[in-house]
Amino acid sequence: MKLSLSSVYRSSNFPAILKSSAFSIPCRSFCFSSLSSSQTSVKAQIPLFLRPARCSATLHDLKKWHDWAKNLASSIGLTFEQSDNGPDSSLLCRELKWLLEDAVEDHTLLPLMGVQNDDKRVTMRAEVDELYNLWNQRIHERRPFQYIVGCEHWRDLVLSVQEGILIPRPETGHIVDLVSDVVSKDDELKVGVWADLGTGSGALAIGISRILGTEGRVIATDLNPVAVAVAAYNVKRYGLKEIIEIREGSWFEPAKDVEGKLSGLVSNPPYIPSKDISGLQAEVGRHEPRVALDGGVNGMDALLHLCDGAALFLKPGGFFAFEYQVSVR
């Protein structure tokens, strides 16, 4: 089994080697206990396209880097795709174009590379030496492109991501669609408190909060302090601090105060069987956090825990939707 990543960034074409789905069940609730958590001091990294443009390079030097990077990408051919469903040269060249656009402030100057004014300086958000280093990491280390540029385009959002954070996939957006559908038919759910457990980048929490509007509230939890910092950064950037509260801790533990009171519960938990982790695409298996991928022997450990907790934390008539996997052979 292989899990692909490479076409997630700015693309709706996701190789469905591992098919993701969501299931939802109205539920009655009873009792559960949890522990409070402390705030993290980890800082989120600023995505490349949001960095201040304090660097510069000549068009000549920029084109020299671009030619080198394109040749390197083209030399890959189908090697990565054939080995583990990784990116082919065509996709890598598209990523190179996106990297260039994120790094250069004035895109109107890009067509001038190699044409004229080679000594003209271009204002940039990264030094050319850094671009060489980043592209080496992309090709030789198979570092995910989303980590290279520090963000992921997900639905209509641009979310900050970095090492230690699971990169949100298009399929996870189906959960947002499910929530939109259910709250459109039930006003009580729309005005209640929701929880996104294992929030990662905060994608689900942000997506759902925009559906609930000012009438609802979302609590987003994560055990990983990096995730807590990144999710908080994304929440702040979208002006949702009054609606979304980020809490550090494992699954239900930070949410003791809403025990039996949740209107809704969502999560994209780890669900890949442990034995299948080694067969994942290099961008995923080598770089994305194993804790966000490995679901135990049969991939169901976190899912079963969430199902048990849902019965305990949801108010009568509450709704939950979790992502899980169906292997396609």
Automatic annotation (TrEMBL):
<keyword id="KW-0808">Transferase</keyword>
<keyword id="KW-0949">S-adenosyl-L-methionine</keyword>
<dbReference type="InterPro" id="IPR002052">
    <property type="entry name" value="DNA_methylase_N6_adenine_CS"/>
</dbReference>
<dbReference type="GO" id="GO:0008276">
    <property type="term" value="F:protein methyltransferase activity"/>
</dbReference>
<keyword id="KW-0489">Methyltransferase</keyword>
<dbReference type="InterPro" id="IPR052663">
    <property type="entry name" value="RF_glutamine_MTase_cyano"/>
</dbReference>
<dbReference type="Pfam" id="PF06325">
    <property type="entry name" value="PrmA"/>
</dbReference>
<dbReference type="GO" id="GO:0032259">
    <property type="term" value="P:methylation"/>
</dbReference>
<dbReference type="GO" id="GO:0003676">
    <property type="term" value="F:nucleic acid binding"/>
</dbReference>
<protein>
    <recommendedName>
        <fullName>Methyltransferase small domain-containing protein</fullName>
    </recommendedName>
</protein>
<dbReference type="InterPro" id="IPR029063">
    <property type="entry name" value="SAM-dependent_MTases_sf"/>
</dbReference>
<dbReference type="InterPro" id="IPR004556">
    <property type="entry name" value="HemK-like"/>
</dbReference>
